[in-house]
Specification:
single chain, alpha/beta, TIM Barrel, 7 strands, 41% helix, 12% strand, globular, binds NADP nicotinamide-adenine-dinucleotide phosphate
């Protein structure tokens, strides 16, 4: 993931799974692997999902904290953490708190607004929004063309939501932006940092055009058209929570067998 900071410098962030952060020595090898693959600077290293219920959260947080203090990365962050676990992680840190929290967040997945967004504002965590275009459904892709889109319930729901699609069209007409820009700029207006995925370099300029945000009345009309997504996927953020019941060793094995590591 690459972003540009306030000085116009690219910010490079990556993630490690919790079976790679269970102890300091393991985490060190994991982050060294990330740095080797990136062949350059690592600004933020994020814990990809919360550790299993059997593994104390503080081990993981303190391992990442120590690696940052040693200069292995510029900062560390959390990903897919619900609010109570974010609060716990903040209590674990001794000298350096996490800098960011990456969660699923879009016009069609608004659960983070109930607890996580206020918590991020209060604690100064940067809220990074993954799947901000719902795999293209908010940019105008109506039918799934790859397995990731086919498997994604949020994609199917957003692609078939006439009210939301019309509100995006209307906002695009009013602002002169593209639909993708409107969906991303709505997140910017909420104070989040969207990380859209694309395989096409020509989309980079379009994506950057969303950074200016949206007029307040356009945000309000999109809020109204997407209000049901505040609770549609649960009031509390739950993405990837099931994985907390799987021990680290089995997570590793399953990902290894599926070619994920
Ligand atoms: N923390 C986590 O657990 C987690 C989980 C999932 C994803 N992520 C992160 O989230 C980021 C993106 O996630 P994502 O791929 O699910 O989400 P996304 O940004 O919501 O969607 C990407 C899809 O949208 C399409 N798209 C982009 N711009 C478009 C445009 N202007 N018009 C039409 N289609 C457009 C892309 O197609 P093209 O390639 O053709 O442009 C791609 O298929 C990645 O950095 C990933 O690492 C994190």
């Amino acid at each position: 993931m690459e972003r540009v900071d306030r000085e116009g410098r690219a910010v490079v962030a990556s993630k490690v799974p919790p079976y790679r952060t269970v102890a300091y020595s393991v985490a060190r090898r994991g982050v060294e692997g990330v740095r080797r693959r990136l062949r350059g600077r690592l600004d933020i290293i994020q814990l990809h999902w919360p550790p299993p219920v059997f593994a104390p959260l503080c081990w993981h947080v303190r391992a990442l904290e120590r690696l940052v203090l040693e200069g292995m990365a510029g900062a560390y962050g959390l990903s897919n953490f619900p609010a109570p676990l974010v609060e716990k992680a903040l209590e674990c840190s001794r000298r350096l708190e996490p800098a960011s929290l990456q969660v699923q967040y879009s016009l069609a997945y608004r659960s983070p607004e109930n607890r996580l967004l206020p918590l991020a504002r209060k604690t100064g965590l940067a809220l990074i929004a993954w799947s901000p275009l719902v795999k293209g459904a908010l940019a105008g892709v109506a039918r799934p063309s790859d397995p990731a889109q086919r498997r994604d319930r949020v994609f199917r729901e957003a692609a078939g939501d006439r009210e939301l699609q019309e509100a995006l069209d209307e906002a695009a007409r009013r602002t002169g932006m593209t639909r993708a820009q409107v969906a991303l700029a709505w997140l910017v207006s909420k104070g989040a940092l969207p990380i859209p995925g694309t395989r096409r370099p020509e989309r980079v300029a379009e994506i950057a055009g969303a950074a200016r945000g949206l007029p307040e009345d356009v945000v309000e009309s999109l809020d109204r058209a997407s209000a049901r997504y505040l609770t549609r996927w649960g009031r509390c953020y739950r993405a990837l929570q099931w994985i907390r019941l799987v021990p680290c060793s089995l997570q590793y094995l399953a990902l290894r067998l599926s070619g994920g590591v």
